[in-house]
Amino acid sequence: MRQILSCYHRTSAAASPGRPGRLGCRHQGLLALLAAAAGLAGCAAGPGPAGLPCAELPGAVSSLPGLRVTQSSAMPADDKGHPAHCLVQGQLGERTGVDGKRYAIGFEMRLPQAWNKRFLHQVNGGNDGVVKPALGDMGVLATDALARGFAVVSSDSGHPGEDPANAAAGLARGNLFGLDPQARRDYGYSANAAVWPVAQALIQRHYGEKPQRNYMAGCSNGGRHAMVAAERYPELYDGLLAGAPGFNLPKAAVQHAWDIQSWKLVDPDIRRAFSPADMKLVADQVVARCDSLDLLVDGIVGDLKRCQSVFKLADLQCGGAKNDTCLSATQVQALGRSFAGPRNSRGESLYTDWSFDGGIGAGGWRSWKLESTIPPWDRNPIIATMGAGSLAYIFTTPPTRVAGTPAALVDYLARFDFDRDAPRIHATDPVFKESAMAVMSPPEAADPTLAALAKRGGKMIVYHGSSDPVFSVNDTLAWAERLQHKLGPLAAGAVARVFPVPGMGHCAGGPATDQFDALGALVAWVEEGKAPDRIDARVNPGNRELPATWSKQRSRPLCPWPQVARYAGGDVEAASSFRCATP
Ligand SMILES: [Ca+2]
Q: Are 527 and 542 in contact, with CB atoms under 8 Å apart?
């Protein structure tokens, strides 16, 4: 790989006389290691002309071992703001797993003609397994990264999604790759290290120079990827954007089993444990009790932390029979149990607790916690078992085989034993030499320093919906507090800032100002040294879950934890009337 990069280096220098290459020796050594990890070796096709057109890119990288480009097409500008670009698709590191199945890292890269000289490594949600379009669309951004001129790469993290045979059996989301340890590792972290140098090679071949800045961005599992990369591959990225980071994903899957068992205290059919009206009642009560803690009654719980000691779930318990204005005693018990988080019989926490916030009555919360469908959509009953297959196949060692029917998946979660089964997310065996937690989490998650990222001047922005039902905002805020405690608030804030989004669910949605330019804020921080003291956010006017009393133009600053938005006078619908302050 050292040779490969020398080739690119020479190519670049030949194309741009007088512009010195920026590839340092330290980088070469690192990339050689990464290339070795990715199974790449040897030299590319040799020095060639820089700025190769799209059609010539496959030939230019064809001798990279392990890389097979399947398509390279010039794409026209579209009506969604995307510029004309070169679309490259391919497979990397094709191999046979210990389960006898074929694996490869599928990827695509989009290289815009009008390039802003930045690279964005898009990391995706769910269980991966799908090469999502490399657009750099985060859900909270009005303009995606490709439309901004980034060269964007996206991958499936090394495994296929739906296996037709599994889909026929009703098993959701292609979890069977968890039977292969390399596929687990690729999903956890190593696919990103394999894709990065390929993306760099395509950029250098297409533009004749390497990117001036490298970024990574994603939400949910993608946010997890970014937090993992910040620790495992800090040399590769100048800036990382981590939305709703599921950096303890196996633990969050344990929570899923805990939730199912909690809801079953109320009703064997978990959909009926809480009606939409019941959850709206809870959310309304949270807002009623906590809205004013941030000193402005505006339907937003800005002071999330104080809210947790002020809001009392037990206040909602019916004095007599259950009716529309209260919860049954069992409902109060079940919801309290869920929000307290999973524990084993010794009382040890197995994940984290959760925050009561104004968005927990929203449809997204319900969909993840109580009521959702799994494929095949037309045949399965509505039921929330999205994490069951993941917990069974990917996050326990050895993998647990469960039937793919909704009933079997619910049964697996309902029988999950928090003493016997939960420790298996930390377990290893001769085949799976890394535990699921080791594969999926940042190595220093429990004691973060971000030392290597900070040393090179890298930056990370994290955002997280306060009503996220999938990954608890409390887990992310506790991580921020550990970092601040470890480094001191100033040093911590110089490398990473965490922005809770009041009312927002998982990655977007809910009664929230969920549209904000976190990517632009990251670029300004990395490239201009403008640290994000606030990120102004606005509502999506088409969001049907916005309270009727809110302006469709409402905006608010998102504030770096532990600060909260304080009203400072003026239009209550405008972010400019607020400042971030420590409560
Ligand atoms: Ca308020």
A: no
Catalytic pick among 9, 82, 121, 506: 506
Angstrom distance (rounded) from CA 539 to CA 518: 15
Name residue, tokens 């799994």. 374
CA angle (506 as vertex; 503, 509 as ends), nearest 5: 55
Ligand 1 centroid to Cα of residue 254, in Å, is 33
DSSP 327: B
Return the DSSP state at 392: I
429 counts as catalytic? no
Give the mean model confidence (pLDDT) for residues 181-191: 98
Q: Which one, of 351, 350, 382, lies nearest residue 369 by Cα?
A: 382
Active site residue 220: yes
- Give 574 Cα–ligand 1 centroid separation in angstroms: 14
* CA 289 – ligand 1 centroid, Å: 10
Question: Whole-angstrom Cα distance, residue 327 to residue 291?
Answer: 21
Q: Which of 424, 440, 456 is where one domain is finished?
A: 440
pLDDT interval class at 126 (50, 70, 90): confident
Q: Ligand 1: distance of its center to the CA of 469 in Å?
A: 21
Pick the catalytic residue: 220, 355, 441, 466?
A: 220
Report residue 32's pLDDT band, with 50, 70 and 90 as the boundaries. very low
Per the structure, the count of domains in the chain is 2
Rounded distance from Cα 545 to ligand 1 centre (Å): 17
Look at residue 338 and tell me if it is in a domain: yes
Please report whether residue 200 resides in a domain. Answer: yes
Q: What is the pTM of this model?
A: 0.90
Q: Does residue 215 come out as left (phi exceeding 0), alpha (psi in the -120 to 50 range) or beta?
A: beta
Buried b (16+ CB within 10 A) or exposed e, 24-63: eeeebebbbebbeebebeebbeebbebebebeebbebbee
Q: Which domain holds residue 324?
A: 250-273+312-355+370-440
Tell me, in angstroms, the distance from the centre of ligand 1 to residue 542's CA: 22
Catalytic residue of the set 144, 291, 468, 517: 468
Instruction: Report if residue 295 sits inside a domain.
Output: no
At 438-448, the pLDDT tens digits run 999 999 999 99
Question: What six digits make up the tokens of 341?
Answer: 């988080």
70: enclosing H helix or E strand = strand 67-75
Kind of pairing, strands 102-112 and 151-155?
antiparallel
Mean pLDDT within 49-54 = 80
- pLDDT recorded at residue 383: 59
